[in-house]
Amino acid sequence: MGEWRTSRYSERENCVEVALGPAAKIRDTKDRSGGTLEISTRSWDALLSALCRPTPLDLPKV
């Protein structure tokens, strides 16, 4: 399993950590012993794609 990493864009103690390997493991930086969410790497890739995809703003038409 890979080593735990945090985003370089987040605050030090206010984020989640991820460890990538055969599965993606995710945990809360503030509560590392509180449990780990494990998802497939395919699901992790889909989540990142959805979060990084630009979306149109939902603005009312004028």
Describe the structure.
A 4-stranded antiparallel beta sheet has the order 1-2-3-4. The radius of gyration is 15 Å and the shape is extended. It contains 1 helix and 4 strands. With 62 residues, the protein is of the alpha+beta class. The chain starts with a strand and ends in a 10-residue tail after the last helix. It has one helix at residues 41-52; strands spanning 5-6, 16-20, 23-28, 37-40. β3 and β4 form a beta hairpin.
Distance between the termini: 52 Å
Strand content: 25-35%
**Lateral arrangement of strands in the main beta sheet:** 1-2-3-4
- Radius of gyration (CA) equals 15 Å
| Total of DSSP H or I helical runs spanning 4+ residues | 1
Instruction: Specify the helix fraction band.
Output: 10-25%
Elements, N to C (H/E): EEEEH
Class by SSE composition:
alpha+beta
Give the oligomeric state of the chains in this entry, treating copies of one chain as homo and distinct chains as hetero: single chain
Strands, total number: 4
Average of pLDDT: 84
Dominant shape: extended
Question: Are there runs of 5+ residues with pLDDT below 50, and where?
Answer: none
